[in-house]
Design a protein that fits this description.
The protein has 427 residues and is of the alpha/beta class. The chain contains 15 helices and ten strands. It has one domain: TIM Barrel (Alpha-Beta Barrel). The protein binds alpha-D-psicofuranose (PSV) and manganese (II) ion (2 copies). It comes from Dyadobacter chenhuakuii.
Length: 427
């Protein structure tokens, strides 16, 4: 299944006059506020969000999994699915692989497939939260933090192997999420677990190529329910500071305790120059259950306000950070869901770019709380979707990615090609 440019153009033509009307109306409104919408559109065009290989199939819960059909059965098909997304929105130009779920048999052929779809390889992810077939030692009681040096060695070697796979594909970063921790008080010595993890991470760090980064992801709980070795941004930052300049903190939206002020965490990490980037998702309760922006769009916007501010302060372009979706759930078509997630990210980014920073700072300096809130909420309440659509159209994408996905019956085509009952590899 491939989407041709003429199909996108034809579909765009059929809705262009309506879109132009909405865009002109918004341009006028923004013009009155001295906001240059072309600058925002250009920023949106440059913003790329990586797609994780594990989000392309229907996720499951521990109670069950309901296959949606037509899911990718191989790494090639995963790359092809991301190619479909990127053709539609031109904003999903890379894929993040998880080893050993996604072992490339032949790097050259998978690279040439990715090139043909205008895709790059984003961070590679290691997996020491599951035991693999024929593995010598079990990760039941931890991996990089394990009390037994032989288990730690195995986990370190796995991470170094992941770097090798990534190198062959042109990735530039290793992403580490550790499930290590304990389920009951007394089970683990916190300090020993930290120090073992640090030593293991130092060995992995030493194996990083010169132009690589390692992203250290934190998560408060699950699968361990009493303590997690890298439980919060503070622990993650501590590891990164001890490791060196090639290690940065990765923020996954779903990995915080309830009501955490994530935007403040982001501001602090950016102030220290240690934000690697994001795993975007949303949740009512925890982890990565739901589509980005589906529950707390205002929080997402406030995070982007800090991101925009932090990038400006550090004089760093958006593409020097790692932006990725990390969500996987049970009831939607995964590709439609990813299109919704990318759109939600771009909407929040566009809204954050509307904020008048000078006015906001003035209001803050004068302790004008009402005005400060109003400046943010004016931006948040602006319907910026015409800007997002225009940025996709200008890059050769669709004005209405989900509409076109449905018109072209992409899922049916994939089911015809791959079968109605499929299990995406790795999930
Ligand atoms: C587990 O919580 C998790 O969702 C982490 O967010 C990782 O980034 C992802 O799995 C892949 O290992
Ligand atoms: Mn994550
Ligand atoms: Mn997660």
């Amino acid at each position: 299944m491939k989407i041709d440019q003429y199909q996108i153009d034809q579909h765009n033509d059929s809705i262009l006059s309506r879109h132009n009307g909405q865009l002109n109306f918004l341009n006028e409104q923004l013009g009155e506020q001295d906001i240059n919408s072309n600058e925002i559109i250009n920023a949106l065009k440059a913003f790329q969000v990586a797609i994780p290989s594990w989000a392309l199939g229907t996720g499951g819960t521990r109670f069950g999994r309901f296959s949606g059909g037509g899911e990718p059965r191989s790494l090639e098909e995963k790359v092809e699915d991301v190619g479909l997304l990127h053709a539609l929105n031109r904003s999903s130009g890379s894929i993040s692989l998880h080893i050993p779920w996604d072992i490339p048999q032949q790097a050259e052929s998978i690279i040439s497939l990715a090139n043909s779809l205008d895709l790059k390889f984003d961070a590679v992810n290691s997996n020491t939260f599951q035991d693999q077939k024929d593995q010598a030692h079990s990760y039941k009681f931890g991996s990089l933090s394990h009390v037994d040096p032989a288990v730690r060695k195995q986990a370190v070697e796995h991470n170094i192997e992941v770097i090798r796979y990534g190198k062959d594909l042109g990735s530039k970063s290793l992403s580490i999420w550790l499930s290590d921790g304990s389920c009951f008080p007394g089970q683990s010595n916190f300090v020993r677990a930290f120090q073992n993890t640090l030593e293991s991470l130092q060995e992995i760090y030493a194996a990083l190529p010169a132009d690589w980064k390692v992203y250290v992801e934190y998560k408060a709980y699950e699968p361990n329910f009493y303590s997690t070795v890298i439980q919060d941004w503070g622990s993650s930052l501590l590891f990164c500071q001890k490791l060196g300049p090639k290690a940065d903190v990765l923020v996954d939206l779903g990995h915080h305790l309830p009501n955490a002020n994530i935007e403040q965490i982001v501001a602090t990490l950016m102030m220290e120059g240690r934000l690697a980037g994001f795993h975007f998702n949303d949740s009512k309760y925890g982890d990565d259950d739901l589509t980005v922006g589906s529950i707390r769009p205002y929080m997402l916007f406030l995070i982007f306000v800090e991101l925009v501010e932090g990038m400006k302060r550090a004089n760093r372009a958006a593409d020097t950070y790692a932006w990725m979706i990390d969500a996987s759930h049970n009831v939607k078509d995964p590709l439609e869901d990813l299109l919704q997630s990318v759109e939600a990210i771009l909407i929040s980014y566009a809204q954050a770019l509307l904020v008048d920073r000078n006015k906001l700072e003035q209001a803050r300096m004068q302790n004008d709380v009402v005005l400060a809130q109003q400046i943010l909420q004016n931006a948040f309440r602006t319907d910026v979707r015409p800007l997002v659509r225009e940025s996709m159209r200008m890059s050769g994408g669709s004005l209405d990615p989900i509409g076109l996905f449905r018109d072209l019956k992409v899922r049916n085509e994939l089911m015809n090609e791959r079968g109605r009952v499929t299990v995406a590899t790795g999930l």
